[in-house]
Amino acid sequence: MITNIISLTLIQDYAYFIGFLILILEFLYIIFSFLITRQVKLLNGSFNTPYEGKLRFIANIHFLVSIGVFILSVLLF
Q1: Nearest 10 degrees: Cα torsion 32, 33, 39, 42
Q2: Which residue ranges make up each domain of the chain?
Q3: Which of 7, 9, 17, 40 lies at a CB distance of 3.0 to 4.6 Å from 59, suitable for a disulfide?
Q4: Rg of the chain taking only CA atoms, in angstroms
């Protein structure tokens, strides 16, 4: 009986630890998506293409979605 309780709490601790690691990885992904947004801005400043607006829009949406997923994960954690 006691071994079942110990193993259950151990599993819960591992699940909590893995969830925390996932949150850290999602935060790092937010930083990555922000860097992509900056790179797109630099690229659009260097080269004139007809797709500047579309690329900037996609990069900004990608950044906002990554923030939204992180906030949702924090709320569900």
Answers
A1: -130
A2: 19-76
A3: 40
A4: 20
CA-wise closest residue to 34 among 67, 71, 73: 67
Are 23 and 73 in contact, with CB atoms under 8 Å apart? yes
Burial class (CB in 10 A: 0-12, 13-18, 19+), 29: middle
Which residue type does 77 have?
A: F
Over residues 62-67, the mean pLDDT reads: 97
CA dist., res. 20 & res. 7, Å (int): 20
Residue 53, phi then psi, degrees to nearest 5: -65, -40
For the chain, the residue count is 77
